[in-house]
Amino acid sequence: MTQSTPTPDTAPTVTEVDFTDRAHRPGKVLALHLNYPSRIAQRGRSPKFPGYFIKAGTSIARTGADIERPAGTELLAYEGEIALVIGTEARRVSPEDGWKHVSGITAANDWGLYDLRHADKGSNVKNKSGDGYTPLGPAVIAAEGLDPAALRVRTWVNGEIVQDDTTEDLVFPFGQLVADLSQLMTLEVGDVILTGTPAGSSVAQPGDTVEVEVDAPTAPGTPSTGRLITHVTASEHPMAPYGHGPQVDDVQREEAWGSREAAGLAPANTEAAGLAPAEAKDAPGERPAVEENGHYVPSAPQPDRTLLTDEMKRKINATAVATLTAQLQKRGIQNATIDGPRPTHPGQRVLGYAKTLRYVPKREDLFTQFGRGFNAQKRAMDSVEQDDVVVMEARGEHGTGTLGDVLAMRAKVRGANAVITDGGVRDSAAVAEVGLQVYSNAAHPAVLGRRHIPWEVGGTIACGGTTVQPGDIIVGDDDGLVVIPPGLLQEVVDDAYEQELQDAWVYEQVTAGHPVDGLFPPNAEWKAKFAEHRKSLDD
């Protein structure tokens, strides 16, 4: 169903509006449950028709306002949205004419308190209509000339972007929403329709600042509503005993936070198998096993981020990748190198914890659902931690980019030490200017969606012919990249460091004129001489 409108040569007007002013307060605020494919995929529910709820006029707030999380509650969640402002009365209009009744768009934050969802039985009255739970503004972009399928909504929490999606692939276009609602009720001038939120909605904490902005990137002048700012505070007032009190379970935690992982919950398939974490059949320190067809399949381990101490880093940075690889081979691990990708910045070493990202081959229906908006690629870069090395499985596919300069910069700002992909890099010159070390197989101008769907963050992947798990230690130099299992790190590094010292000493002896026979590798006599040399280093 198309709803596009020709774009004018002049920029749409942008007008500051205070929706809390009774002269501008909407008579109705109608909100949509699900609309963005990214959010629908997250929820696991595919609506055939739009579903709505109503929010109280007293829930409307302006930019810069505070929102209180009641005492004794935990799941106050934000939802950045595009709000439609009705400009002319609409009753039984068609989807093709629905957009004509919209005078403007603005930013909205559809706050909800998941602790009270149990009290509403689907109405969302207590969960969604608290004071300050519907900030709107600060400005309205005139709808005339805008393409409703070319709008963008973004949300930031404490300055970090958490939602970023466009209206290009909405399940229910804006004209359809206006038409559908107008079949049963008259939409009056000033009424507001909240049009759904993309993936990335999650829980805010007291002290957080949440900002929402809506703009039209392709319109002349790139008109914007400006940042709609809300400050989260902790209320000293609990819910009264003569009404429903807060009630939270893991289902509400998962939906509020956006995923079980974000909520700190065990994987659902483990619980379905009736296993407590201690009963799962994984090695110590790993996440519980997954049951598939009666068999237990090991899942990726939880990273141990205490391994890379200053002393460990010093030893590793003084040791060649070739030496570390040799020590792994002595322990029977022959396939620990990531083969193929080459560094953007020769001479710049890599060391860090593996953070994994997997792409699957593009299939158009799945790309529409999972490839757009705040997809797995963006979530991976937005959740990077200090000393992470992002490792991407791209199946060795060179015919498109798996990284560009914007996400490279995001990874760098978040503290990543490197990005490794067995696929291609787009905007390669700009990526190089970021300064982050990047290993890749090729440069290619095509965007990610030509060949890939970003699919999974934090799983076990294959990159450059070897297996990589989250928390594996990645070391790289000009020779290449090696993956060190965390459980072997200490012994491998200690022995490799000693081997490096011995090799350096042997090199000095050869430089001084000694023949290599008996020296490389050293026989008993030369080993004794090295032992004396090594002792002098410790002294």
UniProtKB/TrEMBL annotation:
One of its GO terms (molecular function) is acetylpyruvate hydrolase activity. Residues 279-294 have a biased composition (Basic and acidic residues). InterPro entries: Fumarylacetoacetase-like_C, Fumarylacetoacetase_C_sf, RraA/RraA-like, RraA/RraA-like_sf. SUPFAM superfamilies: FAH, RraA-like. It comes from the Bacteria. It holds the Pfam family RraA-like. Residues 255-305 are annotated as: Disordered. Keywords: Magnesium, Metal-binding. CDD domains: RraA_family. Residues 30-223 form the Fumarylacetoacetase-like C-terminal domain. Its cofactor is Mg(2+). Substrate binds at residues 404-407, 426. Mg(2+) binds at residue 427. This is 2-keto-4-pentenoate hydratase/2-oxohepta-3-ene-1,7-dioic acid hydratase in catechol pathway/regulator of RNase E activity RraA. It comes from Micrococcus cohnii.
